[in-house]
């Protein structure tokens, strides 16, 4: 059934593709962690009273929204790498700087995720009803308690569908880090395609693996949402018609 | 920094024109193809709705870069493809890039339109039916125009995403803005060329946003007139 070039071991590239897929998932998880942190920080900045913070966060979103993902990855890897190298030199370190590809790739994808996540978090923050905040204050909670007990848990619930969409986008965007020769699924696929001169088989195999990752994520996302909405009547399976983030 | 622009500025502009051409064509053809796809997706007949669902799931569930590679490098593997009349399109990087972008954006726009159609108020459809319009007329005069209006902002976002996605045609050797940029970079490893490219992409994105805002105002002008 499966052509020999896709077998595992020395005769085929099957194992290379699987390893590539694992790197893809690894990069996606790193990027998710970086992106969630950046997204929360940027959402906080957008909601803050400081004009400077708001300006910085809005500019960040605007830049990421208008620049292709591919270009952001190249910018982070080459320009970012050069900048860090120059900075290190300024501090008297002259060993040169070799930007770790996984770090650069995750950082770039995290930057992209964070810009869109900040909008999701901001929306979720504003979706928490005012009355609940007032009620919490009225029973004597401090601001901190209001945030931790009333606001934050609900922000997570409201943000979940949006973050789920962003995760799907992120998973697909990991394929772009192949341009800096990072050995994830897309890169392994094109290497195998070139080595065997059978590109169709390999790109089709990669397509199937990406589809599988999407399907698994979809199932996982639905479960997570059901879990988050378990206390709310009638919302057990909230599945909005997934728009792409903007 | 400026001498880089003096030396390679023309090439970047040429690339940007290719990008604009690809995005404009893909967005128009994609929109035309997305209408029947969205209607098929909403159909009650499963043999119509299931293929539409699978098409949309496939193109939204896999990365564009892989779709392009499959089209351009993958299909070229077969002798039969290389000797078929389709080779005029599939053998040319630019046509192939346009085809890939169009197929991809069609799936996304169909989903957006589906949302728009679902959001058309029931009462308007019932009123149209009560006036004696046939189903086709109801769709042509009421449902589709209203769905477009509702989906317009989301469609604008999709065009921005298409612009960004178009950078990927550089991976199948098209000399769009990204392709020219990477080629200039490979000559002297001067990364300021990326900054110029970023600026050009931002300008294009702002132009698209502006166009859609204007369109929105024009489309909703009847709402303002009475106010």
Instruction: Assign a percent range to the helix content of chain B.
Output: over 70%
Name the beta content range of chain A: under 5%
Our count of domains of chain B comes out at 1
Number of domains of chain A: 1
What is the topological layout?
The complex is a heterodimer of chains A (246) and B (227).
Chain A: H1 14-47, H2 51-66, H3 69-90, H4 101-127, H5 130-138, H6 143-173, H7 185-196, H8 199-228
Helix pairs in contact in A: 1-2, 1-4, 1-7, 2-4, 3-4, 4-6, 5-6, 6-8, 7-8
Chain B: H1 2-42, H2 46-61, H3 64-74, H4 79-83, H5 87-90, H6 93-118, H7 122-130, H8 135-166, H9 177-188, H10 192-219, H11 221-225
Helix pairs in contact in B: 1-2, 1-6, 1-8, 1-9, 1-10, 2-6, 3-6, 6-8, 7-8, 8-10, 9-10
Provide a compact summary of the structure.
Chain A has 246 residues and is mainly α. Chain A is built from eight helices and no strands. Chain A is flat.
What does this structure look like?
The complex is a heterodimer of chains A (246) and B (227). Chain A is an all-alpha fold. Chain A has one domain (12-228): MetI-like (MetI-like fold, Orthogonal Bundle), CATH 1.10.3720. Chain A has helices spanning 14-47, 51-66, 69-90, 101-127, 130-138, 143-173, 185-196, 199-228. Chain B has 227 residues and is mostly helical. Chain B has a single domain, classed as MetI-like fold (Orthogonal Bundle), CATH 1.10.3720. Helices cover 83% and strands 0% of the residues of chain B. Chain B contains eleven helices and no strands. The interface between A and B is large, with 43 and 50 residues.
């Amino acid at each position: 059934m499966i052509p020999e070039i896709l077998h595992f071991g020395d005769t085929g590239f099957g194992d290379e593709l699987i390893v590539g897929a694992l790197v893809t998932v690894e990069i996606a998880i790193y990027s998710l962690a970086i992106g969630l942190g950046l997204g929360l920080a940027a959402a906080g900045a957008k909601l803050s009273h400081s004009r400077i913070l708001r300006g910085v966060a809005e500019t960040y979103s605007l830049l990421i929204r208008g620049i292709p993902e591919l270009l952001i990855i190249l910018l982070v890897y080459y320009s970012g790498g050069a900048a860090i190298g120059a900075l290190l030199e300024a501090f008297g370190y002259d060993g040169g700087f070799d930007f770790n590809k996984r770090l650069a790739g995750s950082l770039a994808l995290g930057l992209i995720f964070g810009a869109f996540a900040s909008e999701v978090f901001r929306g979720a923050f504003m979706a928490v009803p005012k009355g609940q905040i007032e009620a919490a204050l009225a029973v004597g909670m401090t601001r901190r308690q209001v945030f931790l007990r009333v606001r934050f848990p609900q922000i997570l619930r409201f943000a979940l569908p949006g973050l789920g969409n962003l995760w799907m986008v992120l998973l697909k965007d990991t394929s772009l880090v192949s341009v800096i020769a990072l050995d994830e699924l897309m890169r392994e696929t094109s290497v195998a395609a070139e080595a065997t001169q059978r590109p169709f088989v390999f790109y089709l195999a990669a397509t199937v693996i990406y589809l599988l990752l999407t399907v698994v994520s979809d199932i996982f996302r639905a479960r997570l949402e059901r879990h988050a909405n378990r206390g709310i009547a009638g919302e057990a399976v909230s599945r909005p018609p997934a728009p792409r983030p903007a | 920094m400026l001498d880089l622009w003096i030396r390679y500025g023309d090439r970047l502009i040429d690339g940007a024109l290719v990008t604009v051409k690809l995005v404009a064509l893909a967005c128009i053809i994609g929109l035309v193809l997305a209408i029947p796809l969205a209607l098929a997706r909403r159909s009650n007949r499963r043999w119509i709705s299931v293929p539409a669902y699978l098409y949309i799931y496939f193109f939204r569930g896999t990365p564009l870069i892989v779709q392009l590679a499959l089209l351009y490098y993958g299909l070229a593997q077969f002798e039969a493809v290389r000797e078929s009349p389709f080779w005029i399109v599939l053998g040319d990087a630019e046509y192939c890039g346009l085809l890939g972008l169009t197929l991809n954006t069609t799936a996304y726009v169909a989903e957006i339109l589906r949302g728009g159609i679902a959001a058309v108020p029931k009462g308007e459809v019932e009123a149209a039916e009560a006036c004696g319009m046939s189903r086709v007329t109801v769709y042509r005069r009421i449902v589709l125009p209203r769905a477009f209006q509702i989906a317009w902002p989301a469609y604008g976002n999709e065009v921005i995403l298409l612009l960004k996605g178009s950078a990927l045609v550089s991976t199948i050797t098209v000399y769009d803005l990204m392709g020219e940029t990477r080629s200039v970079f490979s000559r002297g490893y001067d990364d300021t060329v990326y900054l110029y490219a970023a600026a050009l992409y931002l300008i294009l994105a702002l132009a698209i946003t502006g166009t859609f805002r204007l369109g929105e105002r024009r489309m909703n002008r009847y709402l303002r007139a009475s106010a």
